Amino acid sequence: MADDYFLKIDGIEGESQDARHKGEIALDAWSFGGAAEETVGGKLSGLARPGVASGRFNAQDFQFMAKISKASPMLFQACATAKHLPRVTMTGRKAGDNPQDYLKITLSEVLITSYQQSGAGGTGTVPVDQVSCNFARIDIEYRGINPDGSLGSPVSASFDLKKKPGLSRGRRR
Question: Does 26 reside within a domain?
């Protein structure tokens, strides 16, 4: 049973017809991450032991893929004009008879850093958008599904790249 993912972007409307996510962008795939920098055999930030983290966090862009929709031209325009988006929220939902929203990732102060559109003739597939977003803050909330199908207690984390010194903004390669 597949999960469903939806993206809500302030000011950009998608084509989802889902009752709880109407007008959002239905995602085919998404990813984000980061890495703590570390030293190997050297001294960095006052740490003398090899392999010890330096305290720097390299945040990578939030990336997503979605089928072409009425959001596509607006995503392109936001990238081309460096439009700042106040908030982008991705919701993950367990599919099935009783769908539950179990994951929410909220990005604040967002900038679309890359927009690609691709398709292939004669394959019967719909073109897709591939988008990368940089952000100043990320909030993550996960809720497990209990055996009875109800949502468990939320587990959350957040990180503000503007407030944490020693950060770098990397891009996934």
Answer: yes
Q: Are the beta carbons of 32 and 61 closer than 8 angstroms?
A: yes
77 within domain boundaries: yes
- Structure letter (DSSP) for residue 61: P
139-169 pLDDT, tens digit per residue, is 999 999 888 878 899 999 999 988 865 444 5
The number of distinct structural domains making up the chain is: 1
Check which CATH number belongs to the domain holding 62 and give it.
Answer: 2.30.110.20
CB under 8 Å to 51, separation ≥6 — which residues? 38, 39, 40
Question: Which residue positions in the chain have pLDDT lower than 50?
Answer: 166-168, 170-173
User: What's the whole-model pTM score?
Assistant: 0.83
Close Cβ partners of 124 (under 8 Å, ≥ 6 residues apart): none
Residue 44 lies in a domain: no
Is residue 45 a part of any domain in this protein? no
CA angle (82, 10, 12) in 5-degree steps: 75
**Pairwise CA distance, residues 57 & 169, whole Å:** 8
The CA distances from residue 132 to 3, 78, 97, in Å, are 21, 11, 32
